Every structure is written in C-alpha cells, then in structure tokens.
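User: Could you go from structure to sequence for me? I need the amino acid at each position, not a summary. Structure tokens:
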C-alpha cells in the first residue's frame, strides 16, 4: 500500500485545502515518524484527520512536553499502583472520535482508557484506525494560553469534539502553564450529557463529577508540575541509606530508587 501512496503524495507540498483519503492520511503520518516537514515555518511530525482534511500538529516547546511527561507519569503510576490496568497514552496515541458520522482522528496530550474498554479491543482497533471507534474517559491538554482566542479554541475542542454525547469521555483538564500565571480548567460531562466548564486555582485536583470519581483515588499533583518547570542544578550528592525495608516482604534496599522499582515490579503492578 505505501508504495502506491508514495507516488501520489508529495510530503513537501501538502495541500491543506485538499480532501485526502484515510489511507493517504495513514501513509503521511507513518512517513513523519522518521522525518519532519515544515508548514508556515512550523515543524510538523503529526497530523490529525477531520473529514478528509489534514490538521497539522506542530511540535511543542520543551517546557510543555516536560509537563506532559510529569502528568502522564502520575497517571501511569496511579494506573499501576491501584491495579487499574487501563491504557495511558500521550500525543502520538490517536483516537477516532467519529464526529458527525465521519472518521475524525484526534491525539490528546494525555488520555486514559479504562481496562474494561481495553480488554474488548480487537486487532483492528489496537493496531489501526479501521475498527469500531472507541474513546478514552479522561484526557488532558497542556498549553500556554496567551490570548482569549487560544482558550476558545480549546473550549470548542472539548465541548464539541471530545465531550460529544456519543463519546466515552467524561472529564477533560486544560493545564495552562504560562510563565506569568498557572491555572487549571476542567470540562465535566454530567447526566443527560450536560457539559460544564470550571476554572480552578493552582492546586491539586481530583476527578470527581457529582461526588463520583472518574479515576478513583487519582489526584493531579501540581507540585510535580512546578518542579518540572524549575531549572535546578542536579543533586547527585545524597548518600545511600541503610536498610530501607519493603513493607510487603523481607527485601531491603540502600536507596529509594531501587526500593520503588522493586515495589512497583513485585507488588504494585502484578
């Protein structure tokens, strides 16, 4: 298949007004795994797909990607340590939101798909976008909101794409990490598919909707985000500790890293 589309698609001269087939979209994104193109002087390594139109996804600045990494780490740690066994994905993980009956591929910065959905996926759903559409229940976008139109773009994306009645998404966070202010916004889907948007202070945030937790026990820790954005000297001078005992077995360790690795591998993530 790729040999055919290699002749038809000129990656250096993509026409964003053109309607592309889904096979062409798949071919283009596959090629961008090993190369980068520029559109309007922005480096592009991924496209989303909207009813035949290619939507460029520019590479993000270093600071934003550091925060994405910290949040996905928190989510995966919760997923492992509570034996949820769901799926945590980042911005290379796309979903077909099937908007208006049309195949619509979106790739949130961070998302969580529960175990009950993951277990039902077949090979087409796991390895292609050709199977029956499915969506996560929770997702996060990270941004530096500079003007009102930036916020409105995210508001439209959450309300009219991610939280549509036919999707499984129940909760969305927008993490605004601007250097002069930091805020968290959330969009929550209530009964009868009513979507409400909230603005939160910069503090730890749970996933409750009407006193029910979308992710039971998960708390977004903003202190880890703050640390990711600090530019600090490495501190490698701390000495090993003596006999850190595992509370689950008789194993002992001389540093926190080895203890945590043991605890996760042996006890938390079975």
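Assistant: Here is the amino acid at each position, in order:
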């Amino acid at each position: 298949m790729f040999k055919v589309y290699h002749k038809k698609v000129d990656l250096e001269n993509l026409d964003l007004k053109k309607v592309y087939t889904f096979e062409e979209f798949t071919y283009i994104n596959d090629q961008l795994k090993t190369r980068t193109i520029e559109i309007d002087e922005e480096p592009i390594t991924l496209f989303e797909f909207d009813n035949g139109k290619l939507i460029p996804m520019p590479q993000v600045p270093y600071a934003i990607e550091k925060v994405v990494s910290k949040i996905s780490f928190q989510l995966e740690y919760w997923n492992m340590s509570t034996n949820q066994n769901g799926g945590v994905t980042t911005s290379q993980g796309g979903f077909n939101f099937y908007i208006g009956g049309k195949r619509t591929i979106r790739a949130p910065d961070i998302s969580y798909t529960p175990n009950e959905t993951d277990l039902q996926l077949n090979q087409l759903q796991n390895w292609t976008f050709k199977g029956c559409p499915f969506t996560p229940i929770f997702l996060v976008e990270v941004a530096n909101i500079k003007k009102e139109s930036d916020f409105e773009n995210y508001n439209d994306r959450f309300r009219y794409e991610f939280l549509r009645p036919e999707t499984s998404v129940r909760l969305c966070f927008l993490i605004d990490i601007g250097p002069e202010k930091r805020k968290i916004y959330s969009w929550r889907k209530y009964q009868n598919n009513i979507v409400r948007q909230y603005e939160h202070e910069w503090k730890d945030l749970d996933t409750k909707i009407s006193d029910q937790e979308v992710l039971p026990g998960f708390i977004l820790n903003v202190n880890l985000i703050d640390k990711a954005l600090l530019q600090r000297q490495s501190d490698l001078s701390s000495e090993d500790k003596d006999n850190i005992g595992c509370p689950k077995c008789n194993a002992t360790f001389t540093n926190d890293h080895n203890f945590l690795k043991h605890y996760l591998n042996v006890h938390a993530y079975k």
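One structural detail worth keeping in mind: DSSP finds eight helices and 15 strands in the chain.
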